[in-house]
Amino acid sequence: MTGRLNTRAPTTGSGLDMDQSGAFCIVCASPPPLTTERLCEVCFRKRNHLSDLPERIQQTRCPTCLKIQIEGRFSRVSEEDLMQQRIIEALRVHPEAQNIEMDLHAESIDERTTRLNLELRGSIQGFIFESLHETLLQTSNGVCLPCTRKAGAYFEATMQLRSAGRRLDEKEIAELRASLDTMLEEIGDEPMFFITNEGPVKGGWDMQVGSKAMARMWAKKLVSAHGGRIKETSSVVGHKDGVDITRLTVLYRKPAYTLGDVIGFSGRMWRVDTWTKDGPILKALDNLERTGTTWRSLEKCTVLSRMQEHYTVEILRRDGSAFDFMDPNDYTMRTIGNPYDLEDEASSVRICLIDGEWQSLPRVRADGVD
After folding, report:
1. Which range marks the domain in which residue 60 is found?
2. C-alpha distances in angstroms, 249 versus 101, 159, 161, 206, 285?
3. Which residues of the chain register pLDDT less than 70?
4. How far is it, in rounded angstroms, from Cα 340 to Cα 345?
5. Is 289 contained in some domain?
């Protein structure tokens, strides 16, 4: 690996002053040329060297997560970047050095020791200096704070996943849980974003996490993706230095319905079109009408047909008010009314079975409609 470092603007010519009538080296009395410190080149080189590097460099690595402590913080870093970082931290360079070139070679001795060979070249007052260094990078174990807390079953918040009026099924739990993994990958190396314990409970899933911020962030992402409501409660679990230590419980209640489902609300049938911060946007089945409502007002709505229970059937024959299709259950010919948004060039329609009767459905965003 090679690096360059310019510490100051280049000088003109060598560092020797050629116009020094009657001057001499203050060390050996040699005649000019002399440096700005009134030294001849030989004495200047004896008194100055390009760089210093200790024979050993010590670093700390967590044996559990294998993160390296850098500037007081445990982080993941590539081996090449780590070697450069350690050299930069330990290397002492002459304050007047310029145009520095560095070649670094690393040789692993064992799991805890690496030999570093450093070649340095630069100029001081116009003189070219070269330095050769060899040092041992030694690694010792030291458990980082997050791993210490994990080992002690530490957690700051409990995340509860539930649904309104029913139990979450395994597929829903897996989908919600996968969204947390995605969030953690996007965030990157956040030490306190860890899971202490998790598992199924009656009606849903509970999870203990290392950070209150982690629980809140995930809850907001769940609402954005799936709708629903969040409820937070705090409890005091201790005191430290006169300050209450609290734990947070975040309850995420997923709606019983999802995008594209058919629900019964206010005596009419609707399809769930999209989510907003305050509640879903609904699309009526019987006429061209869209309306917004709140999460709370829909807590007691009835799910009449879920999206995965719908069928898309081919139109066999149609007129201005109805169309014929083949019943996907018994393959008999059926006729039902056209959805109000049926286009002239449409060749298929989404339908569902409600109370034993087939119902044609207007399109919503879950069907790929903007």
Report:
1. 2-141
2. 56, 6, 11, 10, 39
3. 1-21, 370
4. 14
5. yes
pTM check: above 0.70: no
* The pLDDT of residue 178: 94
Helices H / strands E in the chain, number of each: 5, 25
Query: Which pLDDT belongs to residue 370?
Result: 64
What is the domain count for the chain?
A: 3
Is 203 within the bounds of a domain? yes
Q: Are 1 and 103 in contact (CB under 8 A)?
A: yes
Q: Beta strand pairing status for 262-265 and 302-305? A: antiparallel
CA dihedral 198, 199, 203, 209 (to 10 degrees): 0
What is the rounded distance in angstroms from the CA atom of residue 147 to the CA atom of residue 60?
14
| Nearest-angstrom CA–CA distance, 317 and 323 | 6
**Residue after which a domain boundary falls, among 254, 284, 311:** 254
Do the beta carbons of residue 177 and residue 159 sit within 8 Å?
no
Classify burial at 325, counting beta carbons within 10 Å of its beta carbon; exposed 0-12, middle 13-18, buried 19 or more.
buried
> How many whole angstroms separate alpha carbon 224 and alpha carbon 226?
6
Residues 6+ apart with CB under 8 A from 107: 114, 115, 116, 117
User: Pick from 278, 274, 271, 287: which is nearest to 337 by CA?
Assistant: 287
In angstroms, the CA 178 to CA 234 distance is 26
Are 246 and 280 found together in one domain?
no
Report the alpha-carbon distance of residue 128 to residue 151 in Å, rounded.
Answer: 54
